[in-house]
Design a protein that fits this description.
This protein is α+β, with helices and mostly antiparallel strands. The protein folds into 4 domains: 65 residues; 85 residues, Trypsin-like serine proteases (Thrombin, subunit H), CATH 2.40.10.10; 98 residues, Thrombin, subunit H, CATH 2.40.10.10; 96 residues, PDZ domain (Pdz3 Domain), CATH 2.30.42. It is built from 8 helices and 21 strands. The strands form 4 sheets. It has a 6-stranded antiparallel β-barrel with strand order 1-2-3-6-5-4. A hairpin with a 5-residue loop joins strand 2 and strand 3.
């Protein structure tokens, strides 16, 4: 009996050892499979990282190979000369040559011949001028759009396959960023002169007298890049070669203070002309002042944002929907309004007959009204 118990105890011990052995084998297999799985995932992650880094390195090499000299050379293909007379004579150094020439600059904004310049360079809408391309060929041009308050115009030549510039985003400019101005200072002897500088400030307001009339220009980009007579209408570009402004004027009594009109206000117009060949300018029928101008008009008025309505045109869309002098336009649809340029930039994306919603303040009350855009 005692011998039987001893044998039975030995059998139980054997079963336990066998069970433990099987469990250990199973654990080893599980750990091995888990390590293999994790190793595969890590290798895949490393491979992805390696590919991503390789792509980034290639991109960096491309960026490093494209120098600012290459970028400016590319933009120069789209810079043109604009004059009001066709025969420019033998030299602009002749007596009163520059006055007779009336030379300025423009930029090709679409491949089918639409060119942006200053209104004071091209003249009024429906007037004529002459455009000289990089290759020296000169073409008759017609002014299809002009706005004296912006000092911008668009001229058209009957030619296709042109090299157009890249239009950037003027709302993203910051003080201190590097910029380059390109233009035709003095005359064709110095065509496509490049000057460099920085953005000195944005949203500048300038008040001056021209031809006996008081002029207010708003929302200007200030730069210390040299701008000379003849640079007017030329591009102000960022380091990527994108046009962020159209050079317009400088202060003669100080060095390094020039101004460009933000490009965003004219972008929707160029888009419509280049795609449809037509642009019907929508209007709400008001003129007004933003917070940067209001001090020139009435020092008792204070604005944090919005546009103060100074005048409502008779029988205009604004008059028909009840807007009056003294109202402050705060929003159009969902767009916050800070300047008259903001209003123009937004409504230029619309068409006459479109309905917009205007949020305005009158006294201490804020109201909204639906307005049907008219045609200027």
């Amino acid at each position: 009996m005692q011998k039987y118990r001893r044998i039975k105890r030995k059998k139980n011990i054997g079963k336990k050892i066998f069970t433990i052995f099987i469990v250990l084998i199973a654990l080893i297999l599980v750990v091995s499979l888990l390590r293999l799985y994790l190793r595969t995932d890590v290798e895949k992650i490393n491979e992805d990282i390696k590919v991503e880094r390789t792509s980034q390195t290639v991109q960096n090499v491309v960026n490093q190979d494209t120098t600012i000299e290459d970028i400016i050379e590319e933009v120069n293909h789209s810079v043109v000369g604009i004059s009001k007379i066709k025969e420019i004579g033998s030299s602009i150094f002749a007596e009163d040559g520059i006055e007779k020439l009336g030379l300025g600059t423009g930029i090709i904004a679409s491949s089918n011949g639409y060119i942006i310049t200053n209104k004071h360079v091209s003249g009024d809408k429906y007037s004529s001028c002459y455009v000289t391309l990089e290759n020296g060929n000169t073409y008759d041009a017609k002014v299809v759009w002009a706005d004296a308050t912006l000092d911008l115009s668009i001229v058209k030549i009957n030619l296709g396959g042109l090299k157009a510039v890249k239009l950037g985003d003027s709302t993203s400019v910051k003080a201190g960023q590097t910029v380059y101005a390109i233009g035709n200072p003095i005359g064709y002897e110095f065509e496509r002169t490049v000057t460099s500088g920085i953005i000195s400030a944005k949203s500048r307001t300038l008040k001056f007298t021209e031809n006996g009339e008081e002029v207010l220009m708003t929302d200007l980009i200030q730069t210390d890049a040299t701008i000379n007579p003849g640079n007017s209408g030329g591009p102000l570009i960022n380091i990527n070669g994108e046009v962020i402004g159209i050079n317009s004027l400088k202060i003669d009594t100080a060095e390094g203070i020039g101004f460009a009109v933000p490009i965003n206000v004219v972008k929707p117009i160029i888009e419509k002309y280049s795609t449809t060949g037509n642009f019907e300018e929508p209007s709400i029928g008001v003129s007004g002042y933003d917070k940067n101008i209001i001090d020139y008009i009435d020092k008792t008025l204070k604005l944090d944002s919005g546009v103060y309505i100074e005048q409502v045109s008779l029988n205009s869309p604004a008059a028909n929907c009840g807007l009056v002098k003294g109202d402050i336009i705060l929003k159009i649809d969902d767009k916050l309004i800070y300047t008259m340029n903001d209003i123009k930039e937004y409504i230029y994306t619309k068409n006459p007959g479109d309905i917009i919603k205007i949020e305005y303040r009158r006294g201490n009350e804020t109201n909204t009204v639906n307005l049907t855009l008219g045609k200027r």
